Amino acid sequence: MMKIKQKGIAGTLESSDVLVVVSPHNEDKIKLILQSKVEKQYGDSIKKTVISTLSKCGVVSALVDVRDQGALDCVIKARVETAVYRAADEKKVKFGELS
Amino acid sequence: MFAPGMMSISDGITLSVLQDDDLQSKLKEITQFLTDRGLNIDVQVKTFILAYNQEDNQIVGCAGLDKNVVKCVCVDEQFRGSGLSVKIGTEVIKRGLSEGYDDLFLYTKYKNLKLFRGWGFTPLVELPDVVAFMNYNSQKFRDYLEGLQTLKKNGSRIGSVVMNANPFTNGHRYLVEQASKNCDWVHVFLVREDVSLFSYKTRLELVREGLADINNVTVHEGSDYIISHATFPQYFLKNDYDVNTQASAIDALMFRRYIAPALNISVRYVGTEPLDKTTARYNLVLKKFLNTYPYNAKPIELKELERLKYRGVVVSASRVRRLMEARNYEGIKDLVPESTFVFIKNASDNCQKKKETL
Amino acid sequence: MRLRRSMMFIPGANAGMLSNSYIYKPDSVMFDLEDSVSLTEKDSARFLVFNTLKENLYEGIETVVRINSVETPFWEDDLDMAVRGGVEIVRLPKTEIVDDVREIEQRIEKIEKDCGRPAGDTKIMAAIESACGVVNAVAIAKSTPRMVAIALAGFDYLVDMQTSRSSGSEPELFYARAAVLHAARAAKIDAFDVAYGNVNDEEGFLREVEIAKNLGYNGKSLIHPRQIELLHKAYAPTQKDVDYAQKVIQAAQEAEEKGLGVISLDGKMIDPPVVYEAQRVLLLAENS
C-alpha cells in the first residue's frame, strides 16, 4: 500500500518520454488525466499501462496527470513508478516485486 | 565526457536552476542575454532555469518563474530546433509544479505559440497577432469551470461584481445592492491574491458578512483565472497611473469567454468616479473587451455606477485604510458595515494589547 | 565466443535514448547510472533501466549497467535493480584494488540468492580510471570468475596522471593501454579501449581505433551511435584474413575427422590459439 503524501513528478517533455505528475486525491480512487499526441490510437493502451502500474505499486487514491510524447510502455511504467515513489516519499524500492 | 555534478547534460549543454544569491550573482549576465535578443528582464522572477554551453560557459537559453507564471523565455538562435527549449521547458514546469502550484501560466507573443504548445501549454484567450495567454493544466481549469456551473442560478439577467475589498466598505455594499435590485442574481467574485493589507481569508469573511442579508447574492472565492497574479498582476498597482491595457484585456476576455458563460452572467457592474483617471481607463478597456470587441463569446454589458459618497467624498477602501493609519475609528464607522468595523476595532485592540504586554 | 567490439554508452536517465538505441545494434549496451545521471535523477534512472531490461528491448545485445561507486549512497540500490532486472554485466566504475571487486561480488551473490537468479550468472567488468587501477590491472582482471572484461577509461585516467589528451600517436595513453590489455590477456578476458569524445572527428576516431585494434583490443567504449558502424567496419577482417581462417578451420575439422592429435596446414603445425583466432575472424566476418 502506497500513500500519496505530496506531489511527485517524473519524466520530461522530450520525444519518446512522458511527464507524470502524481498528487494526493481527496477521493479513494484514481483520477487519471492523459494528454497524448497519439491519443486516438494509443490512448486506451497508455491508460491501461498507467493504471496497472499504479495498482502494482499499491496506489488506490491519487490524481495522476500524464503528458505523453510517444513513450514506450517500459518508459511509461518507469515514470509512473518514479513519480509514485516520490509522491509517497518512499526511498526503498523492492525491485523484485515490481513486475 | 560525462562529468559529475551537472544537472542535465546533452551535446555539451548543462542546465542549472538559480535562486536567491546564486541568481543575484548571475542577474547581470541573464539581463544581457535577454536584452541582446530584444527581451526585458522581469524583476519579479525569483527562479531562473539557465542553459549553458559547456565549451565557453555562455548562456544559450533561459526561462524564469514568477510564482506560477513563466516569463523571460529565450533560446539563442543557434540552438533553436535542437531540443533545448523542451529541456528548459521540462525544468520550468517541474519546478513550478513542485513549488506547490497546480497550474502554470504564461503570456506569449503570438509567434511563439507553437513553442509553448510543445511544452504542453494551451491557449486560453488570444489577441490575434498580438499576445496569447496560456495555461498548463487544462483539467484544473475544466474542473474550476464545472465547479462554477454547479452554482448557476436561473434568471434572464444575471449580474456580477469583481472586488478586492481591502476591506469591504459601504461602497462595495452599495454596488452589490444596486446590482441585486436590477438582476435576478448577482455573483460576487473576490480577488484571491494575498498582497493586500487585509488577508484573503479576512476579506472573504467580511464580504460574506457584509452581504449576508441580501438574498440573491453568491460570493465566490477567487481563483487563478480571474484577476490574479497570472491574469492581471498589475491590478494591484492600480494606484499607479500605468494601467496595463494588455493585461486588462486578457482578464476581461477570460471573464467573457469562460466565467460569464459558466454562470450565465450577462452584466458586470463597476464603480466609477469622475476624478479617478486610473479607474476610468481600466473601465474603458473593460468595456471594450467585455462588450464591443469582436470575439467568439457573447458580449457582456458593462454597467458603470457612480460610487457611493459619504459627505461628498467617495467611500473607498483606500480611504478606510488611511483612517486606520490615523486611528480615526469614528471616521471609519461611517464608511463600513458593522461587521467590518467590529473586525477593524478588534484587530486594533489586540494590537494595542500586544504592545502593552511587550 | 562473443563479439565485444562496440560498447555503447547510454545515460540511464534519458528515456529517448534508452527507447531507441537498440536499432543501432551495438555488440553491447551500457546503461549508465553514474556520471551521466544527475544526483536528483538517480532514482529515475534506476526505474528506467529496470523497466528497459525487463521489456527485453535489447534482445540479442549484451546488457551492461554501470553502477555508482561504493563510496556513494547509491550503489546498493543500483546493484539490487541491475541483478534483479536481469542485466548480464555489472560495470564497476573506477576500479583500483581487488577489494573494490570483492565488496560488489559479495553483494551480487546475496541478491542472486534472494531473487532466485543462478549463482554466478551476473558477470562483472572493471573500469580502470587511474594510475592505481593500471598498476593493479592484472590482479583486478583475475580477481573473480565473474570478471569477463576490463576497460580503460581515458578521461579520468589522464586527469589522475596530471596530463591530458594530445592528438596523433598519443604517448600519454601508451602504458595504460598496454597494461590493461596485458591484464586482460593474462586473465583471458576481453579488453575495451577508451571512449573517443569528439563525435564529429571521424578521422581521429578511426586513427585511434586502428591503434587499439593493432594492439589487440577486443573493442571500444562508444558515446555516439554513428561510431558503431565505423568501428565495426574497422574491425572487419580482410578477405585474405577470412580465406586463411577458413583454411584453418577446415584443417582443424579434417584433423578431427581423421582422429589426428595434431592439426597441420601447408606443412605447418597449427596450435589451438590459432584455431581460436580463426573462429574469431570468421565470427567478425559474419557480423561485418
> What is the beta-strand fraction of chain A?
15-25%
Mean pLDDT of chain A: 94
Biggest β-sheet: strands ordered side by side in the sheet of chain A: 1-2-4-3
Assembly context of the chains: heterotrimer
Instruction: Tell me about the largest β-sheet of chain A.
Output: 4 strands, mixed
Query: Helix and strand succession of chain A?
Result: EEEHEH
Lateral strand order in the biggest sheet of chain C:
1-2-3-4-5-6-7-8
Supply the helix-strand structural class of chain A: alpha+beta
| Number of continuous helical runs of chain C | 12
Percent of residues in β-strands of chain C: 15-25%
- C-alpha end-to-end distance of chain A: 16 Å
**Which value, in Å, is the CA radius of gyration of chain C?**
20 Å
Low-pLDDT segments of chain C: none
Give the averaged pLDDT of chain C, no decimals: 93
The end-to-end span of chain C amounts to: 16 Å
Task: Provide a quick synopsis of the model.
Chain B is α/β, with parallel strands linked by helices and 358 residues long.
Question: What this model shows, in words?
Answer:
- The complex is a heterotrimer of chains A (99), B (358) and C (288).
- With 99 residues, chain A is α+β, with helices and mostly antiparallel strands.
- Chain A is built from 2 helices and 4 strands, in the order E-E-E-H-E-H.
- A 4-stranded mixed beta sheet of chain A has the order 1-2-4-3, covered by helices on one side.
- The two termini of chain A are 16 Å apart.
- The mean pLDDT of chain A is 94.
- By secondary structure, chain B is of the alpha/beta class.
- In chain B, helix 4 crosses helix 7 and helix 7 packs across helix 8.
- The longest helix of chain B has 20 residues.
- The termini of chain B are far apart.
- Chain C is of the alpha/beta class.
- In chain C, the strands form 2 sheets. In chain C, strands 1-2-3-4-5-6-7-8 form an 8-stranded parallel barrel, surrounded by 6 helices.
- Chain C starts with 5 loop residues before the first strand and ends with a helix.
- Classes of the chains: A alpha+beta (99), B alpha/beta (358), C alpha/beta (288).
- Chains in contact: A-B, A-C, B-C.
- At the B-C interface, strand 1 of B face loops of C.
